[in-house]
Amino acid sequence: MNYAKGLTFARTKAGVSKRQLAKMVGVDASYITHIEAGRKKPSLDIMEKVAEVLKLPMPLLVLLSADSNDLLGASPEQAAILGVRLMDLLKV
Length: 92
Hints:
The chain is mainly α. The chain has one domain (about 5-90): Orthogonal Bundle (434 Repressor (Amino-terminal Domain)). The chain has helices at about 5-15, 20-25, 30-35, 45-55, 60-65, 75-90.
């Protein structure tokens, strides 16, 4: 799983800064920076809080974080398109 990719995409699509997201989730802004840089992996609790504050279903946030080897049979491009289309359907 590439939580850096998923978190960055979801946060950016929602129009929320790292600092704003950190405040909404209840963590230090540097923690969000570390996750998005790939230096730290978030806990399930943090990912659930992120999904909640960004008003995303948790499975969608997981899908956005998936790498090609996480989605058997799907190319990275197909997975990215699927994530974007799901977000558009949900009006996120």
